[in-house]
Amino acid sequence: MTSERQEKLLEVIKGRRSVRSYTAEDIDKATIMRLLDAAIHAPNALNEQVWSFAVVQDRAWLKQLSDKAKPLFYAEASQKHLDRGDSHALDIFTNPDFNVFYNAGTLILICSDKQGPFVQADCWLAAENLMLAAYVLGLGSCIIGSALEALNLPESKADIGLTKEMTVVVPIILGIPSGETAASSRRNVEVSAWRSS
Ligand SMILES: Cc1cc2nc3c(=O)[nH]c(=O)nc-3n(C[C@H](O)[C@H](O)[C@H](O)COP(=O)(O)O)c2cc1C
């Protein structure tokens, strides 16, 4: 790989953002299929390719699901102290106007009906491929972990057309970004150990 391509790839990795504001424009099927093709090229355990994908392009249904997701996530997050001591961090999930999907027009679900120690890893690696591909195609994306519990309710899976054996592992919204998204900061790299001979 030329050094120019190396720099470009590193720029892509660092340039991706979690986008939380979208235009009303929809994404076409051909583009979504390109993203899914990028997703399936992720490394995965034993190359078993245990993932499966579902696409939801229905803003009204997503808004309804958001309303179901908020109290479920609030209860779970409060119980597990995901607010890390900031007692207001979860307040947004009690705001009736807040949509956990940020009014995005497309939700992609990376799912699996398989069990095993690496199923989650495989799906998450596919997710990163998909989000990087979205970024280079000029699209925004954001993982919506707060909707996982609601998405895995039997009635949600039935609404989407997923079998009950299917588990949603990664929900990712997609859309055309409206405006710029600032980079979120990162702490310095911490190397906990480096043993060498
Ligand atoms: C497992 C997981 C769950 C996430 N869930 C949400 C979510 O529910 N809502 C949201 O706005 N962002 C969510 N995010 C996005 C993170 O907030 C985001 O990746 C982080 O703040 C770093 O910002 P960046 O992606 O722009 O670098 C999630 C990310 C991960 C990996």
Automatic annotation (TrEMBL):
Domain Nitroreductase: 13-167
Domain of life the protein comes from: Bacteria
Name of the protein: Nitroreductase family protein
